[in-house]
Design a protein that fits this description.
heterotrimer, A alpha/beta (432), B alpha+beta (524), C alpha+beta (163), A: 432 residues, alpha/beta, Ubiquitin-like (UB roll), 42% helix, B: 524 residues, alpha+beta
Chain lengths: 432, 524, 163
C-alpha cells in the first residue's frame, strides 16, 4: 500500500463525494475565495513558482503558459479545459470528473481568473457521456451557489462555463485541433506560429489546460507553491495520477508523488503480473511514448526529465504493462492501427506514413514480410516523426506532435524486439 | 530591415515576410504544393521544409517569418536568420516527403492532362527518388464529377486542399470540403450543391497535379503542343489578364494570368470558356458587295474604292457606329474617318457579380466601353432620333459580331439608308443587310489596346492567324480614309496609331505597347 | 428538391429549447455545430441531409462545412444504425484483456461482422478505438453507457437483457 497521502483523490471513496455540499464540507472553494482577493498576476506567479507541469501529455509548465497571454489586448481571453482524454492507457481524468468534478471546476475558475477569461469551455470527449452529465450537474450546482455566473462570491468577477462534447477524434486532444473542433470545424491542428496563447479560439488569446493540471490548482493556492514543489523532483513536482493497465493484477489509477519508481507502480501498487508471468515491456506514458524493455523499466523513475534521458517520455502517465505472453509484433500493429485510424490526414507524412506502416505490419504478420521491411519501418518512422535521439534534436516533419506519437512507439518496438519481428519472416526454403 | 542568409545569398527583407515569399521573389527554388499567394497558409504538404539554423526541427518556409533579432542572437554577428535549402538534410527530407506523396499516385503520366505542367513531375525529377519503396496495395478510387465542368481523379490527388480553400476564401461558395480523415480523406462536394459557381474553372488551374481536370480540356491536347500567348479577356469590362493556349488554328484553353491591378490570380468561367462561341460562327473573310439577296466577292482595291465612293457621295450625311468590342485604335480610326460617330449597337449586359475577395464580373459584357467613351467622346444614346434630325443617309458600322435579332426600329433605320457599310468578321443579321461587307478580325485574331472600366489600358494580343483576306480593323479604316482623303496619314503599324491617338487625347499620351507590356498601364 | 421534384423535408429540432440554449452559449454560431449535430442524431438516430441543411442554417455556415464535420468525427453516422450500438474497444489494453474475444463472440451470437447490423435492426457491432477506461478492460460501450471488465458470460447476460 502506498504511504503517500493522496491530494487529488483524497475523497474519491466517500459517499456523494461528487456533490458541491461534500466538496465544500472538506474545504472546497476556499482557494477560490482566497484567489478573488488576489491580483490575477499574483495567481499566475504562484502557479509558476510551483513548477506545475501539464498533466495532459506535453508537460509544459502551466504558470509559464498562462504568462504568455498578452497584457495589452482587448480581445476576449478563453480558457479551455481539455477533457478529451483519448491517449491509450490513460483514464485518470475520467476518474476526477466522475468523483471530484468540483475540484477541477474550482481549478478552472481560478485559472480563468488568472488570465482574465470571462467565458471558458470544457471540451469533453463525446464517448464520456456519463461524465458529461456529471459535469453538467456540477456546473449547475456552481451557478446556483454563485460560484459561476455574475459577481462570483460577491466579487466583480464574472465567468461562464460551457460544456462542449467532442465527437470521436483523438486528434482533438491536441490543443490547436481542439480549438478548431470547438470552432465547429474538423479537428485539423493549426500550424504554429501563431500560438494559441496569442491567437487561439476565434483568433483570441486562449489557454488549454488538462483536467488533472487544473485539479492541482486549488491545492497549490491553499497549501502554497513550496508545498507543491516539495513533492517529488523539484523540476517536475506534485502529486500525480498514474494509470496502469494491460497485464497487471490490479489495474487502476494510483496517486503517487512524481518521481516514483516505475517498478513500484507495477509490482506494488498494481499487484504485479498475473499468473506469475515475467514482465516484457512497458509503455511509461501512454501509447505515444517509446516502450521500455523490462530491464529498462525496472531501473527508472516516473519523472519528466529522467524518462527523456531514457529516450522516452512521461506523457500522460498512462502505463501499459506487457508480459511475456504478449506478442510484440501484434502489439506494434495494434498501436500502428490506432494511429492510422486517428490520423487527421492534413499533412503528408502522417497521412500516408501511418497507413503504410499498418499495411506493412499487416503483411508481415500474415507471413508476407521480407528482411528489408524491418529496415523500412525505421525509415518510415524517421520520415514521419523524426529521430528518437533527442540529443540530435527532434526532426519531426508533421504539423503537430502526432508524427512523433506514432513514430516513437512503433520504432521502439522494432528496435528493442527485433527478433520477434524477424521471426515472422517466412523461413528460407532449403533446396536439397 | 532584417538580413537573411539563404544558402549563399544575402538578402535584406521586410520584417514579417516568410522565407518562401522571399525565395520566390528572389528566384530561389523551394518546392511547395499547398502554398498559394492568394490563399491562407496551411503548411500541410510539408514540401517546403528548410533548415533554419538555431531551430531543431526543419521548418516549413511558408510559415516561418523573418524578423529582427536581438544583436546578441544574430548569427555570425550579422544575420537575423540563416536558412539552408539545399543541404544534405533538406535534400534527403524532400525525397522522403515526395515518396510519401507518390505512395498512392498512379503512374498516369502518359494519360494525365497535367503532364508537362505538373509540379509532381517537376519536383520528382528535381528532388525525388527514381523509385518508390512502397510495395503494398495502392488506394484506388473512381473518378467523380465535382461539378459540370470539373472532374476529380482521386488517385492523383495529394490533398493539398488548395481547391477547398479556394471555394471557401475566393469564391465564398464553399462547395468543396474534405471528407473523412486520415488515409481515407478525399475531396468531395455535396450531391445537391456541386461545384458550379462562376469561378469553378480556377480550381483546375490551381491544382498542382492532374487531380482536378477541366471537362472542357480533358484529353484534348498536350501542353507541349500548345503555344501560350498572353492577352486580355474580352468578355466583360474588367479585362482579366489571360494566357491563350492554341495549336495552329485552334484555341484549346484559356488560363488566368496574374495581374494584381486587375484580376489577381483568377478569371471567371464566362471568359474561360467563351472562346468556344467563335468556333462555329459563319465567318466573313472576303470583302463583298451586295448583289440582290446575295453577295459578290471583291478584291480589296475594288472594295475600298467602292466604299470610298459611297461615302464621298453623301459626305456630311454619313455617320459611324463604333463598337465597345473593338480596340481603341479601330474606334479611333473610325472617328477620324467619319465626321461623327454616333453610338454603338445595343449593349450586351449581364449580372454584376462580386466575390468575397473583390474579384468581379462586370455587368457590362463588352471589353472596351471606357476606351470608346474616351476616344470617341460625345456619343449619343438615342441616335435613332439624331439620324432623323440630321438626315443621315449612310452608316459605317463596326459590327461587334454578336448575332443580334434586329428590332423594328433598327430595321427601319437600315431600310432608310442609302448605304450601309458593315465591317465585321461574322455573318450577323446586320452584316446580311449591308451593302458592302468588309472582313475585319475575330476577337482572338485582333491586336490593339483596350481600356477596362477602371481606366487601365491593356495590350490585346492575337492568338490565332488571320483568315482569308481579313485585315485588321484599324487598317481597313485607314485604307478607306486614305482613299477618301488623299492627304491623310498612312500608319505603318499600330504603334504609330497609338502615338497619334495620344497626341489627340491627353490622357492617352505617352503610351506605347512597350510601356503597356504584360501588366497594362493606369491612365492618368 | 428531391430528384423526383418533391420538396426536401426540413428537419426541425423537437427540443427547440435546448437548441436555442446551445446556440446562445457560444460567442460564435459556428461553434454550435458539434452540439447541434449530437442533438439531431439523438433525435433521428443518424445524420440526414435535412439535418445537415438545418444545422448549416442555424450556425450560418454552408452545408458542405457541416458535412465536413460529420464525415470527420466517428461518432456521427450518415447511415441508420441499429437501436443498440455495440462499440467494442480494440486498442492495446483492451486487446490484451480479451476484447477481441468479445468481437468474435458477438459475431458468432448474432451473425454480424464489425460494421454490420442485425437484420431486425437491434444491434450494430462496431470496433472502436481507446475509450479511455483501460483500467477496467475489456470495455464495451452500448450507445452512451460503458460496460467495463465483463467476462464473456456477463456480456451474454447483458446483451440478452436488452429489450
Amino acid at each position: 500500500m502506498s504511504d503517500f497521502e493522496p491530494v487529488l483523490t483524497e475523497h474519491i471513496h466517500q459517499k456523494d463525494c461528487h456533490t458541491l455540499s461534500f466538496y465544500k464540507s472538506v474545504g472546497g472553494y476556499t482557494a477560490l475565495e482566497k484567489v478573488l482577493k488576489m491580483n490575477p498576476a499574483e495567481v499566475t506567479e504562484e502557479v509558476k513558482d510551483s513548477n506545475l507541469r501539464g498533466r495532459g501529455g506535453a508537460g509544459f509548465p502551466a504558470g509559464i503558459k498562462w504568462g504568455f497571454i498578452p497584457k495589452d489586448t482587448d480581445k476576449p481571453k478563453y480558457l479551455i479545459n481539455n477533457a478529451d482524454e483519448s491517449e491509450p492507457g490513460t483514464f485518470k481524468d475520467r476518474l476526477l470528473m466522475n468523483k471530484v468534478p468540483h475540484q477541477m471546476l474550482e481549478g478552472m475558475i481560478i485559472a480563468a481568473y488568472a488570465i482574465g477569461c470571462q467565458t471558458s469551455f470544457i471540451y469533453i470527449r463525446g464517448e464520456f457521456y456519463k461524465e458529461f452529465k456529471m459535469l453538467e450537474m456540477a456546473v449547475d450546482e456552481a451557478y446556483e451557489s454563485n460560484l459561476l455566473g455574475q459577481n462570483i462570491l460577491g466579487s466583480n468577477y464574472n465567468l461562464d462555463v460551457v460544456i462542449h462534447r467532442g465527437a470521436g477524434a483523438y486528434i482533438c486532444g491536441e490543443e490547436t485541433g481542439l480549438i478548431e473542433s470547438l470552432e465547429g470545424k474538423r479537428g485539423w491542428p493549426r500550424i504554429k506560429p501563431p500560438f494559441p496563447a496569442i491567437e487561439g479560439y476565434l483568433q483570441s488569446p486562449t489557454i488549454v489546460n488538462n483536467v488533472e493540471t487544473l485539479s492541482c490548482i486549488p491545492h497549490i493556492i491553499t497549501r502554497g507553491a513550496s508545498w507543491f514543489k516539495s513533492i517529488g523532483p523539484e523540476k517536475g513536482p506534485g502529486p500525480r495520477l498514474f494509470c496502469i493497465s494491460g497485464r497487471v493484477n490490479n489495474p487502476g489509477v494510483f496517486e503517487e508523488p512524481m518521481g516514483i519508481a516505475l517498478k513500484d507502480l507495477i509490482f506494488e501498487r498494481a499487484g504485479g503480473i498475473p499468473d506469475g508471468k515475467k514482465l516484457k515491456a512497458v509503455f511509461p506514458g501512454g501509447s505515444s511514448s517509446a516502450i521500455l524493455t523490462a530491464e529498462e523499466a525496472l531501473d527508472v523513475n516516473m519523472d519528466f526529465d529522467e524518462l527523456v534521458e531514457k529516450k522516452t517520455m512521461l506523457g500522460s502517465a498512462g502505463v501499459i504493462v506487457m508480459d511475456e505472453t504478449v506478442d510484440m509484433v501484434q502489439a506494434c500493429l495494434n498501436i500502428a492501427r490506432f494511429y492510422a485510424h486517428e490520423s487527421c490526414g492534413q499533412c503528408t507524412p502522417c497521412r500516408e506514413g501511418t497507413a503504410w506502416l499498418v499495411k506493412m505490419l499487416t503483411r508481415l504478420v500474415n507471413g508476407g514480410g521480407t528482411p528489408k521491411d524491418i529496415d523500412m519501418i525505421f525509415e518510415i518512422t524517421d520520415n514521419i516523426g523524426g529521430l528518437i535521439d533527442f540529443s540530435k534534436g527532434s526532426f519531426g516533419k508533421t504539423i503537430c506532435p502526432f508524427g512523433e506519437a506514432v513514430a516513437w512507439p512503433v520504432r521502439s518496438f522494432v528496435e528493442k524486439f527485433k527478433d520477434e519481428f524477424l521471426a515472422y519472416l517466412p523461413k528460407e526454403k532449403i533446396v536439397v | 530591415m532584417p538580413l537573411l542568409k539563404i544558402d549563399d545569398k544575402e538578402i535584406q527583407v521586410e520584417s514579417g515576410t516568410t522565407i518562401l515569399e522571399i525565395a520566390i521573389a528572389s528566384g530561389i527554388e523551394i518546392p511547395y504544393y499547398c502554398y498559394h499567394p492568394a490563399l491562407e497558409v496551411v503548411g500541410s504538404c510539408r514540401m517546403c521544409l528548410v533548415q533554419v539554423e538555431g531551430m531543431p526541427k526543419l521548418q516549413v518556409s511558408c510559415n516561418t517569418f523573418v524578423g529582427e533579432v536581438h544583436p546578441d542572437r544574430k548569427v555570425n554577428g550579422k544575420y537575423d536568420m540563416v536558412v539552408h535549402t539545399q543541404n544534405e538534410l533538406v535534400v534527403k527530407e524532400r525525397k522522403n516527403i515526395l515518396e510519401f506523396l507518390l505512395l498512392n499516385h498512379p503512374l498516369d503520366c502518359p494519360v494525365c492532362d497535367q503532364a508537362g505542367e505538373c509540379y509532381l513531375q517537376d519536383y520528382s525529377f528535381k528532388f525525388g527518388n527514381a523509385h518508390s519503396r512502397f510495395e503494398e496495395e495502392k488506394r484506388v478510387r473512381p473518378n467523380e464529377y465535382l461539378g459540370s465542368q470539373i472532374v476529380i481523379n482521386h488517385n492523383r490527388c495529394i490533398l493539398c486542399s488548395r481547391c477547398v480553400r479556394f471555394t471557401q476564401e475566393i469564391s465564398g461558395t464553399s462547395e468543396l470540403f474534405v471528407e473523412a480523415r486520415g488515409y481515407n480523406s478525399k475531396i468531395a462536394a455535396l450531391e445537391d450543391k456541386p461545384l458550379d459557381n462562376l469561378l469553378a474553372g480556377n480550381v483546375a488551374d490551381i491544382c498542382p497535379v492532374g487531380a482536378l481536370l477541366s471537362t472542357d480540356y480533358i484529353h484534348k491536347n498536350r501542353i507541349w503542343n500548345l503555344e501560350q500567348k498572353p492577352s486580355v479577356c474580352q468578355d466583360c469590362s474588367v479585362g482579366c489578364n489571360v494566357d491563350v493556349f492554341s495549336q495552329q488554328d485552334q484555341i484549346f484553353r484559356l488560363t488566368a494570368r496574374e495581374n494584381q491591378d486587375v484580376n489577381g490570380y483568377f478569371m471567371c468561367d464566362i471568359g474561360r470558356y467563351g472562346f468556344h462561341r467563335f468556333e462555329k460562327i459563319e465567318r466573313i473573310i472576303h470583302p463583298m458587295v451586295r448583289n440582290g439577296k446575295s453577295f459578290n466577292v471583291l478584291d480589296w482595291d475594288e472594295a475600298i474604292k467602292k466604299t470610298a465612293d459611297l461615302i464621298e457621295k453623301s459626305k456630311d450625311k454619313t455617320a459611324g457606329i463604333v463598337s465597345p468590342f473593338h480596340t481603341n485604335e479601330s474606334n479611333y480610326l473610325l472617328g477620324l474617318l467619319m465626321k461623327e460617330t454616333l453610338g454603338f449597337l445595343p449593349p450586351i449586359t449581364g449580372e454584376e457579380i462580386t466575390f468575397p475577395t473583390k474579384f468581379r464580373i462586370s455587368a457590362d459584357r463588352s471589353p472596351n466601353l471606357r476606351g470608346v467613351n474616351d476616344i470617341c467622346g460625345d456619343l449619343v444614346k438615342d441616335f435613332t432620333s439624331i439620324i432623323k434630325t440630321r438626315d443621315i443617309r449612310g452608316l459605317y458600322i463596326l459590327d461587334d459580331g454578336v448575332d443580334r435579332k434586329l428590332d423594328d426600329s433598327w430595321k427601319d433605320i437600315l431600310a432608310k439608308m442609302d448605304f450601309v457599310i458593315v465591317q465585321s468578321y461574322a455573318m450577323t443579321e446586320l452584316a446580311k443587310s449591308a451593302h458592302i461587307v468588309l472582313p475585319g478580325l475575330a476577337p482572338f485574331e485582333r491586336e490593339g489596346t483596350i481600356t477596362n472600366d477602371k481606366g487601365r489600358i491593356q495590350w490585346l494580343r492575337p492568338s490565332l492567324a488571320t483568315k482569308g483576306d481579313s485585315k485588321p480593323d484599324w487598317e481597313i479604316l485607314m485604307l478607306v480614309r486614305n482613299a477618301l482623303h488623299k492627304e491623310s496619314e498612312y500608319f505603318a503599324d499600330l504603334g504609330e496609331v497609338i502615338k497619334k491617338m495620344g497626341d489627340q487625347f491627353p490622357n492617352y499620351s505617352g503610351i506605347s505597347l512597350f510601356k503597356i507590356g504584360t501588366q497594362g498601364m493606369a491612365l492618368t | 428538391m428531391n430528384s423526383n421534384g418533391t420538396p426536401k423535408k426540413k428537419f426541425i429540432f423537437t427540443d427547440s429549447g435546448r437548441m436555442e440554449k446551445i446556440l446562445s452559449q457560444y460567442p460564435d454560431k459556428r461553434s454550435a455545430t458539434l452540439p447541434l449535430l449530437h442533438l439531431a442524431q439523438t433525435q433521428k438516430g443518424f445524420i440526414t441531409g435535412a439535418i445537415i441543411n438545418a444545422v448549416a442554417q442555424h450556425t450560418e455556415t454552408h452545408p458542405a462545412e457541416v458535412m465536413d464535420c460529420v464525415s470527420f468525427y466517428t461518432m456521427f453516422f450518415s447511415r441508420p444504425q441499429g437501436t443498440n450500438k455495440l462499440q467494442v474497444c480494440q486498442t492495446l489494453s483492451c486487446s490484451l484483456n480479451g476484447a477481441d474475444d468479445f468481437v468474435d463472440h458477438i459475431t458468432q451470437k448474432y451473425g454480424t461482422k464489425p460494421g454490420e447490423t442485425t437484420s431486425d435492426g437491434k444491434f450494430t457491432l462496431l470496433k472502436v478505438e481507446c475509450l479511455g477506461s483501460c483500467g477496467t478492460a475489456p470495455v464495451i460501450q452500448i450507445n452512451n453507457d460503458y460496460h467495463e471488465g465483463l467476462s464473456i458470460n456477463e456480456l451474454d447476460k447483458l446483451l440478452d437483457s436488452i429489450p
